[in-house]
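Data availability (excerpt). All sequences and predicted C-alpha cell strings are deposited with the supplementary files. A representative entry, Cytochrome c, is shown inline so that the format can be inspected without opening the archive.
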Amino acid sequence: MKASRILAGAAAASMIAAAAFAHGGATGVVKQRMDAMAAIKDAMKVLTPIMQGKTPYDAAVIGQQANVIGNHAGAALTELFPEGSLDKPSEARPEIWENWSDFQDLAEQLNSYSEGLALASENGLMMAADTQSGSMMQGGMMGTQSGSMMQGGMMMQGGMSGMRDLDSLSKMPADSVFLMLSQACSTCHTRYRVEN
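C-alpha cell line:
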C-alpha cells in the first residue's frame, strides 16, 4: 500500500511539474489548451495531498476537482489539438498527429478516470481502509482491485483500457482511481509533450 501511495504521489508530482506551462505569447487554440492544462494542473494540486493523506479527506472536493479534470478531457481535450498546431510556445509534439488514435485513447482514459474518481469519491482512501481492517485488504473488494493494480504494473503498462468501466471504478478506493488518472496524464506527457 505504501508503494502505491508513493507511486501515486510521484506520478501526480511529475504531472504537475510537467504541466507548468509558460503561457507567454500564446494565442488561439494553443492558449486555449494551455489554459485547459493549467486547470487540470490546479485540480491535481488540490487532489494530490488529499490522496497522500496529507490534507483532510473531503469527498465533495474530490468530486469537484475530478469534474474540473473531466471538463477538459476526452473530446474537449482533443478538439484543442487541430493538426499542425505547433505555434510557439506550444509544447505539443508532432507525434500527436502521427499517433492520433493513441492520443485520443489517452484523452478518453483521462475522461473515464476523472468520472470514475468523482464516483469513487465517497469510498475513501485505500490506505485508510488498510489501517482500519487488514482483512478488507486481503480478500475484500479493495484487496482485489488494488492487487490487480499492483501486479507487475500490468494496469499501468497498457492494461488501463480494461479498467475504464465506470461501475468498476466507482467501487474502488479513490486513491486507486487517482493513481490511474495520474498515470494517464504522465503517459500522455511522456509521449506527446516536448520536455524543457
